[in-house]
Structure formats: C-alpha cells, structure tokens
C-alpha cells in the first residue's frame, strides 16, 4: 500500500505508514498511521484515521499521542474526528493537524499532485499542517508552505520506494 503525505504544496508518495526523522544521525519515528478512515455504509463498523506521533511544540514541550489519545496534559488539547486528529495550544492555535483527505478533496489539489496520485494510487492522502519540533528540526507546514528549519519546499511531488524522512539535509525518500 502507498500513502501520499501532503505537506504545504508538496506531496510525497511512499509505501510506508511511518514517517521518520533523523536526530543527530539516529532515525526516530515521528508519525505512524495505524489505520485509515473508510467511508462505509451506516450498518458497517465505523472506521477512523488512527495515528500515533511524538513531537514537541515550538516551546519544546513534548507531545505524545498513541492511538489518537494523549496522556493528561494541561498544555494542549486534542480534537478527534473520524478522519483527523488535531492538537492545539490552549489559545486555540494549531500545533499539528493530521487529516485524511477524501477522494474528491485529494483530486481537487494542484494538478502536479493529482497527476502523481493518479499514477501511484495511494491508499490514503494524508495532509499534515502545523508548527512543531522533531529533535533539532523545526517543521512549519501550512497551505502553501513547508519549511524544515529555514529550508523551504514548494510544489514538489516526489514518489519514493522507502519511508519518508525529514533531516537537516531536507526531505529523504
């Protein structure tokens, strides 16, 4: 199965439900897609996007979510829907939002992204927004921008045969 990770105006299509990062040469897990949401008939068992991740907010406070659930914390809130998990500061600003796009939304993205989705037919298109830290990497992802530290990425669509990884050098596939 392939997953399309849409970050800013970029898409990375890889065969892994796991996204890693390099921290001083050591590979660490950032995000794991445990299960994806499927639009099922009302009589079927409900499915949800289920994720686990470990990040820090921009102040360096650790945030760990396992199977869409966070330990008790007074520094952030978590909102769960069938196709998304969003962690926010108490003031409402987003730390990270992981959202599985439905087929219509995915196919209404920029042409360079939809062309790659048509060729690679991923099982899910996962959009990642936020402003968070992975080791020494500051990740900032919004609608049109994606930064790893001060390095920006725009309008790239890359298929890969391995896991998606973030590193000081940039995005590795």
Percentage of helical residues?
under 10%
- Helical segment tally? 2
**Cα-to-Cα separation, first versus last residue:** 16 Å
Global morphology: globular
Output the helix-strand order. Answer: EEEEEEEEEEHHEEEEEEE
Average pLDDT value? 91
What quaternary form is this?
A: single chain
Q: Determine the strand fraction and express it as a percent band.
A: over 45%
Contiguous low-pLDDT stretches (5 residues minimum) are none
- The helix/strand class is mainly beta
Q: Count all strands and give the number.
A: 17
Radius of gyration: 15 Å
Biggest pleated sheet: 10 strands, mixed
What does this structure look like?
The protein is mainly β and 173 residues long. The chain is built from two helices and 17 strands. It has helices spanning 103-106, 111-120, and strands spanning 3-7, 10-14, 18-23, 26-35, 50-56, 62-66, 69-70, 76-81, 84-89, 94-101, 124-134, 137-141, 146-148, 151-153, 157-159, 164-167, 170-172. The chain is globular, with a radius of gyration of 15 Å.
Notable characteristics:
173 residues, ten-stranded mixed beta sheet, seven-stranded mixed beta sheet, 2 helices, single chain, mainly beta, 17 strands
Short description:
With 173 residues, the protein is mainly β.
Give the arrangement of secondary structure elements.
Layout: E1 3-7, E2 10-14, E3 18-23, E4 26-35, E5 50-56, E6 62-66, E7 69-70, E8 76-81, E9 84-89, E10 94-101, H1 103-106, H2 111-120, E11 124-134, E12 137-141, E13 146-148, E14 151-153, E15 157-159, E16 164-167, E17 170-172
Parallel strand pairs: 1-11, 2-15, 3-16
Antiparallel strand pairs: 1-2, 3-4, 4-5, 5-6, 6-7, 8-9, 9-10, 10-11, 11-12, 12-13, 13-14, 16-17
